[in-house]
Amino acid sequence: MATKVVMAQLSPTMEEGRLVEWKVSEGDEIEQGDIVAEIETDKANMDVEALGSGVLRKIVVDEGETVPVGALIGVIAGEDEDISGLLEEAEAAAAGADEEEEEEEEEEEGEGAAAGAAEAGGGKRAGEGAAAKAAETPSNGAGRRDGGRVRASPVARKMADEEGIDLSRLEGSGPGGRVVKADVEEAVESGVGRGAAAAAGPERLTEERVELSQMRKAIARRLTQSLGPVPHFFLTSEIDMGRALDLRAEINERLAGEDGEGEPAKIGVNDLLLKAAAEALVRHPEINASWGEGEIVRHGSVDLGIAVAVDDGLITPVIRDADRKGLRRIAAEAGELIDRAREKDLQPDEYQGATFSISNLGMFPIEEFTAIINPPEAAILAVGRTVEKPVVVDGQIAVRRRMRVTMSCDHRVIDGATGARFLDTFKSMLENPLAMLL
Amino acid sequence: MAVITYREALNQALREEMERDESVFLMGEEVGEYDGAYKVSKGLLDHFDGNEWRVRDTPIAENGFAAIGVGAAMAGLRPIVEFMTFNFSLLAFDAVVNSAAKIHQMSGGQFNVPIVFRGPGGAAIQLAAQHSQVPDAWYSHVPGLKVVAPATPKDAKGLLKSAVRDDDPVVMIEGELLYNIKGEVPEEEYLVPIGKAEVKREGTDLTIVAHSKMVHQALQAADTLEEKHDLRAEVVDLRTLRPLDIDTVLESVRKTNRVVVVEEGWPQGGIGAQVADDVQREAFDWLDAPVARVAGLDVPMPYARNLEKQVFPDAKHVVRAAEHVCYLDQD
Asked: Pairing relation of β-strands B233-237 and B198-201?
């Protein structure tokens, strides 16, 4: 069977890669795992491994060319296998991408022209706004960000904060795309941007690169020597799920009473775990991180991978910006992604580039297990089944619903205590579930 | 309640305070025999039996009689000094600013200066550059003075009575164009406290801050805004310019999120500049738009009627500024 060699996404922010060098030539025998090429990402040069064995039949992308993530760069197949179908497919995909690009360029030009219509103004009667107006460049919503800052009036900011609305998702109706009070009021009514930053929650994440200390380098070097390229260690904790399950039942009862079109019929336990993980990751950005070349990258968003079993294996669809989404939204997205994963209908950008993953075998009689980290993520959480069992509460034996989770951590990035603090937050989120919904 | 003019209300206040307290006396150019240039002191000299110690005509020497007033106040009397208009108070600036405003502090509190300087300020009709000036910001700049600028007959009477009874120098700026306006004034005795603004019209969509003549332009603009845009403008009348009652303004801004500050005077360093500063500092998180100001044009007042109209801020300017802070004038 033919194996595609594609431009792999080697970091969550990578959108395209340049082929630096082919390490093999057309006609060479390839074993699965062989290094076939070197590519340059936005961060570093990295090797591409063959995902199957055979002969390198075709080099599709030549050295020096830059192609988007997911593009076919070569084909490994049996010596006489027909690969014409694969090659045609790749050609069609490349042509499609070009067209899209052209369209985008045209749109950009259009915006530029509109934004150029700046208004002249200036009256001597102080204020009356004429002078102030000249300073505000009128433009459409897309122009409202100045270096990432969303333009919003102070009261709009305050209201958005109180209502938990993400200003960056609103179209500002004021001058220069300024988000004004009326826009936030409308959003409150329609629910747009809702469930963003929790009002009392920690600040938004920003991408951060942590310089490696000598100690951190030594830890990385020695542990890698000891245990493969990603030195795993494991932390297990048992969580009392009683309150979370009660809350879930209550939410579902409420949802059943609503005629929520497009909303999920139910919130699942897994959705609660995703929400808790997202909230805990925002509070522990050191877990939401990756080992890079000579640095640790703390990601600017929480992108949660969900390990989903499919017929012949496993795939991890990703919920983007999970920290900025409410429970219902997470449930809706997870439901849809999982369904499509089972139908093998996911696009690469829907299953690549998670910053943390959860693997839940709670539907099986598995009380606890360990999962293997999916690089470049630094951790994965393995979730076992929730079981009723006797536990000691205030000196008395009581029956409680308990769930064991085991987090696998990349020791180059995460130390035992760091991981333990994260798990502690995760546990207390689930044991006091209202806290994570606020 | 009786409906009387602003002029009559002031006249009543003078009469009542002079009757109440023998140490209160009125002094100024033509306040006695001629009944006052604007007839504010009409009948007062007769009422007090022609006693010139109660109603004193002075020579045309503003710094002289204003300074005599300061001395009389230090000596225990309660003078009311009338400037025929505040344009002439420029000649007495030294008496007001350097003497009246400073003596309490410089004497270590040994002397109070319970004096009232009053008269009309601002433009009337075709009085040209030297006789159309707005002294509001000039006097409100000075620590040691209290400055009031009433817009209605009721406030004029109540504030003048409070000013007379105040132990510190009070500058009361009236308006020539206000003297004939009519309004309800309580029959019984009352005072309007110095340092208290008043909401003259309740609203929810924007706040128009004004004082004196401009309160009437603001109210007119508020009517237009309601008819034209269904906007409910709240009109806050500052009434006192020093000490400024910013709390009433802030309370309104926290409700409406939008502010237009209106004044007759020049823009630079104006009352509106002070209000805008207080608002942005104290109510930043409540603002939905930058504070807008309406002021007189930044020029000496022209004599020609058509040009004078261009310079004088009116309700149309206020409406335009209101539309701007409500984001109604885009495109």
From this structure: antiparallel
Q: Do A180 and B330 touch (CB under 8 A)?
A: no
Closest-CA residue of B relative to A175 is B330
**Domain extents in chain B:** 2-185, 198-325
Digit-by-digit pLDDT tens for chain A (438 residues) are 788 888 877 766 677 888 888 988 888 888 888 888 888 876 567 788 888 888 888 888 888 888 888 888 888 888 888 888 888 877 777 666 555 444 444 444 333 333 333 333 333 454 444 333 333 433 334 334 445 678 899 999 988 888 888 888 888 888 888 999 999 988 888 777 665 444 445 566 777 788 787 777 777 777 777 677 888 899 999 999 999 999 888 888 888 776 555 555 688 889 999 999 999 999 999 999 998 878 899 999 999 999 888 777 778 899 999 988 888 889 989 999 998 888 878 888 888 889 999 999 988 899 999 988 888 899 999 999 999 999 998 889 999 999 999 999 999 999 999 999 999 999 999 998 887 777
Tally Cβ neighbours within 10 Å of residue A428: 15
- Distance in Å, alpha carbon of A202 to nearest chain B alpha carbon: 20
From chain B, the residues in CB contact with A156 under 8 A are 288
What residues of chain A lie within 8 A of the CB of B285, using their CB?
154-155, 157-158
Q: Which of B254, B255, B257 to mutate to test the interface with A (most CBs of A within 10 A)?
A: B257
Domain A141-190 has CATH 4.10.320.10: yes
Identify all chain A residues contacting B307, using CB atoms and an 8 Å cutoff: none
Complex ipTM: 0.74
CATH fold of A3-94 reads OB fold (Dihydrolipoamide Acetyltransferase, E2P) (2.40.50)
- Cβ distance A265 to A257 under 8 Å? no
Angle among Cα A69, A74, A80 to the nearest 5 degrees reads 150
Given the residues B16, B47, B131, B282, the one annotated as active site: B131
Fold annotation for B198-325: Rossmann fold (3.40.50)
Q: Helix, strand, coil: what percent of chain A each, to 5? A: 35, 25, 40
Most A CBs within 10 Å, among B206, B260, B264, B288, to test the A interface? B288
Please give the residue of chain B at the shortest CA–CA distance from A156.
Answer: B288
Nearest to B37 by CA among B92, B86, B100, B93: B86
Strand partners, B57: B28
- Residue B285 φ then ψ, to 5°: -70, -5
CATH-assigned architecture of domain B2-185:
3-Layer(aba) Sandwich (3.40)
Would you list the domain boundaries of chain A?
A: 3-94, 141-190, 208-437
Count interface pairs A-B at CB distance under 8 A.
Answer: 80
Does B110 contact A at CB distance below 8 Å?
A: no
Nearest to B327 among A154, A155, A174 (CB): A174
* Residue B251 CB-density burial (10 A; 0-12 exposed, 13-18 middle, 19+ buried): middle
Using a CB–CB cutoff of 8 Å, tell me whether B325 touches chain A. Answer: yes
The catalytic position among B62, B82, B264, B308 is B62
- Tell me, which fold does domain A208-437 have in CATH? Chloramphenicol Acetyltransferase (3.30.559)
Q: What is the 3-state secondary structure (H, E, C) of A259-315?
A: CCCCCCCCCCHHHHHHHHHHHHHHHCCCCCEEECCCEEEECCCCCEEECEEECCEEE
Which one of B270, B287, B317 has the shortest CB-CB distance to A128?
A: B317
Task: Write out the two tokens for B273.
Answer: 């500049």
Is there a common fold for B2-185 and B198-325?
yes
Give the pTM: 0.55
Q: Is B62 among the residues known to form the active site?
A: yes
Any CB–CB contact under 8 A between B124 and chain A?
Answer: no
User: What distance in Å separates the CA atoms of residue B239 and residue B55, rounded to the nearest whole number?
Assistant: 27
In chain A, which among 109-148 make CB contacts under 8 A with chain B? 124-129, 132-133, 138
